């Protein structure tokens, strides 16, 4: 999982640093900063998600994983000589 912190939205509530102090620090005015590059290992996911969900101004954003997906399967075409839906 990856996250991003939008410091322009942060209002300095400090909830993120309370829930996930290893990922968020507070400056002298109480505004949050992200510690590290935003990569969250599985063992810390719950704490960081709690910080994300409890942020009153939604300044923490979960970034979609960039995992390659399988290409969509092509629809099976009915052979030209077969009946489709009872019609020819």
Automatic annotation (TrEMBL):
Gene3D superfamilies: 3.30.70.20. Keywords: 3Fe-4S, Electron transport, Iron, Iron-sulfur, Metal-binding, Transport. The keyword Transport applies. This is Ferredoxin. InterPro entries: Fe-S_cluster_ET (IPR051269). Its cofactor is [3Fe-4S] cluster. It holds the Pfam family Fer4_15. The keyword Iron applies. Residues 64-88 are annotated as: Disordered. Transmembrane segments: none annotated. It comes from Mycolicibacterium thermoresistibile (strain ATCC 19527 / DSM 44167 / CIP 105390 / JCM 6362 / NCTC 10409 / 316). GO terms for molecular function: 3 iron, 4 sulfur cluster binding; metal ion binding.
């Amino acid at each position: 999982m990856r996250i991003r912190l939008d410091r322009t939205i942060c209002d300095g509530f400090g909830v993120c640093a309370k829930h996930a102090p290893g990922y968020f620090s507070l400056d002298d005015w109480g505004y949050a900063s992200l510690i590290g590059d935003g990569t969250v290992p599985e063992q810390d996911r719950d704490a960081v998600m709690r910080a994300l969900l409890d942020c009153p101004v939604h300044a923490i954003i979960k970034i979609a994983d960039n995992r390659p997906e399988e290409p969509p399967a092509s629809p099976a075409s009915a052979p030209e000589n077969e009946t489709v839906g009872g019609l020819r």
